[in-house]
Amino acid sequence: MGMTTPPRTLAEALRARDDESLAGLLRARPDLLSPVPNDITQLATRAGTRASVVRALEHLDRFALQTAEALAVAPDPAPYDTLLALLTGDGQDDGAARDDAGTAIRSAAPGALATLREQALVWGENDRLRLVRTARELLAPSPQHPSPTGLGPTVAEATAGMSPGRLQEILAAAGLPATHDPVSAVASLSALFTDRSRMGELLDTAPVEALSVLDRLVWGPPYGEVTPNPTPPVKWLRDRGLLLPVSTRTVVLPREAALHLRAGRAHRVPEPLPPAVVAAATRDPQAVDSAAAGQAFLAVSTVEELLTSWNGGGPPILRSGGLSVRELKRIAAVLDVSEPIAAFWLELAYAAGLLASDGDADERYAPTPAYDDWTELPVQDRWVHLATTWLTATRTAGLVGGQDAKGRALSALGPELDRSAAPEVRHRILALLASLDPGTAPDPESLLARLRWERPLRGASTSAGNTTDLRSRIALWTLNESELLGITGRGALSSQSRALIDSGPAKAAALLAPLIPEPLDHVLLQADLTAVAPGPLERPLADTLSVLADIESKGGATVYRFTPGSVRRALDAGQSAADLHAFLAAHSRTPVPQPLSYLIDDVARRHGHLRIGAASAYVRCDDEAVLNEILADRRSATLRLRRLAPTALAAQIDPASLLEGLREMGYAPAAESAEGDVLITRAGIRRTPPRTPPVPVPEGPPVPGGTLLGAAVRAIRAGDTAATVVHKETDGTAATAGSLPRTTSAETLATVQAAAMTGSAVWIGYVNAEGAASQRVIAPVRVEGGFVTAYDHTADEVRTFPLHRITGVAELADDATT
């Protein structure tokens, strides 16, 4: 759809685009599709709204943004050469480095301008470039919002409202001819500031102190405060218009003068090229893959250990949501990690759907049924599930321990941890890592510099006491979390992670599987009541051993310690002493040490000697001496015990509390049922109802697919046809579409019947069932039963219209096209 004349408005410029270009605009700015605009004019109006323009500016890279900022301080409209001069300078102070920068700018400027055009921020031919008005207002200078370029208002803007007498004084002091026309006076002063030779002569007469004042203002901010009696250098500048008054105490360096002092450049440091990501170290790719695989296995084991510790029910949920600081410290101690790392594992398990609240009245956290399914998967598939969840999750564990906008602490698993920018930053960081050679670990500062160049306006919100932008903080957290998760190894992206990004989960799992160590079916028992697992254990062995012993240390080899409490825990779970002896003998590559056998027999001998039941609670024992000992112990006072019989005591507390109290006193009681049988407590039985993982919070509207884009473009084109088509009035004269046509019922019926017979299109006014009026171009196909079946050019579909809802009909002009 070419145009023979330059566009006069943004709508005309958009109308001149082809369908592919319109689809590119909607893809780059998906907020314009909510809802689909009725026509091109509405699309242009929506593209110029403040919220949409701000979103578009936030997605520009550094040089595209600098190009837009240069257009904001250029004349409107501006030729391409003027824009280029603002980016490169006028060449008066060029050196070798400036020549190289100018070459890079001239090479990059067409691409930056094309980006601005594609996103409908700039329109017009190269000889008349126009920045959309809202963008100009956002980027143009003002006392409240200084321009990003550091330039102030023009002479004309700064002198608006100045008295003619004051203008004459400035002209006289600057050596310019007097004129009684204020417009001519402003033009004369502007011409002086833009003439390099005359401006140079004027500045040659300036005091050295005055030039120092200009040096402080030239790169911005251009505003300064003055006293009622300014110093001689400031007075010299003010008298000659180099400083113009904004208020009684504020002056500004006019834009034309600042550009002369800057050698015509809008920016001190134009950045046409993205900064390179610098390599900090180069590793052996195989060593990277092995290190990442080891960390991936540790990540899976850590999540499993975390949720196993909550098998019997996790900690309570705060009234405001989330986990208390005390519980986070407790989890960190269990995992033997710092609190921020513990928060990361908690958030990852929660985002993966492995952890949720149980929904009970006394609400607590617990593993979900999906956790049981997850544990049945191979290690590599479990890791892939965690890694893909992390890539797309918007919950940001790095915020835990900080404060929200109201100064309230942000807790793990609590609300307000979603940051919609997190997935984009993670994907971008990994994409930059993937662009490096295998085994290359990047310098973090160069990564941050690249991110800031790509999105200089994004993530500008800061937390209390932290001046680092949000995207940079997320990027640093991403580097740390990717190492914890095994995405990277020794700082470099692993082969399996590259496959996860490029080829998907199946390929990543296939590459990771050979690097995961095979699980072992044995441990090494030692005489100091410890067992050493020289590698990962098979699941049944690991589950049983985690009940029978406590983990003392983790790493390449895991050390388990047997204690009276851990042995009693195994006995409580239904194991007998004989079962434990047989288990250790079957799975130890070393002989079972005699101290361990004695420990098991000793605990088993005393286990269940005392029985706890419900009276409120009672204690019974065949040995009266044991009960006498309990009653005589001062620590039993809080249990509120009294003797019922020589072999039974009653308590006024619940059985669980009584059981715990006696264990703290050093006894090994067992709970019993109403029938007198020992109650066996087994781990791993508490689960939440089925839960859906938290849905990531999207950042704005999703990017539409090709089908939706094609349909949207067709609908906009059809609506534009209906809005701009030329029709004939009832007197036969042509007029553009405006108010709804009005015809009688008989005229409407006759016109649509004739159109159906001839296959021509007509223009109608239509009111739907909700009373909303619209105008449409239709091609009637059939007219019967009070309805018109027609192809609706506006909606690009065949529809049926009740005749009584058509306000009127008009034929299209002879030269109109649909």
Structure description:
With 818 residues, the protein is α+β, with helices and mostly antiparallel strands. The protein is 44% helix and 13% strand. The chain contains 33 helices and 27 strands. The strands form 9 sheets. The chain has a 5-stranded mixed beta sheet with strand order 18-19-17-16-20, with helices on one face. A hairpin with a 7-residue loop joins strand 7 (355-357) and strand 8 (365-367). The longest helix is centred in the middle third of the chain and has 24 residues, at 285-308. It is extended, with a radius of gyration of 39 Å. The model is unreliable at 461-467 and 732-737 (pLDDT under 50).
Radius of gyration, in angstroms, nearest whole number: 39 Å
Distance between the first and last residues' Cα: 13 Å
The total count of helices amounts to 33
As a percent range, the share of helical residues equals 40-55%
Q: Major beta sheet, specifics?
A: 5 strands, mixed
Weakly predicted, low-confidence segments: 461-467, 732-737
Please state roughly what percent of the residues sit in beta strands, choosing from under 5%, 5-15%, 15-25%, 25-35%, 35-45% or over 45%: 5-15%
Shape: extended
Give the spatial strand order of the biggest sheet. Answer: 18-19-17-16-20
DSSP strand count: 27
Structural class: alpha+beta
Mean model confidence by pLDDT = 85
Fold topology:
Blueprint: H1 10-15, H2 19-28, H3 40-47, H4 50-58, H5 62-72, H6 80-88, H7 96-118, E1 122-123, E2 130-131, H8 133-139, H9 155-158, H10 164-173, H11 182-194, H12 196-204, H13 208-217, E3 223-225, H14 232-239, E4 244-245, E5 250-252, H15 255-261, E6 279-282, H16 285-308, H17 325-335, H18 339-351, E7 355-357, E8 365-367, H19 369-375, H20 379-392, H21 422-434, E9 440-442, H22 444-454, H23 470-485, E10 488-489, E11 492-493, H24 495-502, H25 505-512, E12 524-526, E13 530-533, H26 539-548, E14 550-553, E15 558-561, H27 564-572, H28 577-587, H29 594-606, E16 611-613, E17 617-620, H30 624-632, E18 641-645, E19 648-651, H31 655-664, E20 670-671, H32 706-724, E21 726-728, E22 734-736, H33 745-758, E23 762-767, E24 773-784, E25 787-792, E26 797-802, E27 806-811
Parallel strand pairs: 16-20
Antiparallel strand pairs: 1-2, 3-5, 4-5, 6-9, 7-8, 10-11, 12-13, 13-15, 14-15, 16-17, 17-19, 18-19, 21-22, 23-24, 23-27, 24-25, 25-26
Helix pairs in contact: 2-32, 5-7, 5-8, 10-11, 13-14, 16-18, 16-20, 17-18, 20-25, 21-23, 22-23, 24-25, 27-29
